[in-house]
Write a structure and sequence with these properties.
Number of strands: 0
Shape: elongated
Distance between the termini: 16 Å
Oligomer: single chain
Low-confidence stretches: none
Radius of gyration: 15 Å
Largest sheet: none
Strand content: under 5%
């Protein structure tokens, strides 16, 4: 059975999210603009969440 942690694309999305979070913390313009920072962080988390949701749809099928 394939778990989400075994998917290369999901692992890359998690790594991307970590890098974006680090960038947001180090970027002075984003530190001062919380709404933009928040929107960027929510969007990047959404990538991994959508991959997990899509993978779950394929693995949970019972015929």
């Amino acid at each position: 059975m394939t778990t989400i942690e075994n998917l290369a694309v999901w692992n890359k999305a998690i790594l991307f999210a970590k890098n974006v979070y680090k960038f947001c913390e180090s970027n002075m313009h984003l530190k001062n603009n919380f709404s933009l920072k928040d929107q960027i962080q929510r969007a990047v988390v959404s990538i991994a969440s959508n991959i997990a949701e899509g993978a779950d749809r394929w693995t949970q099928r019972i015929y």
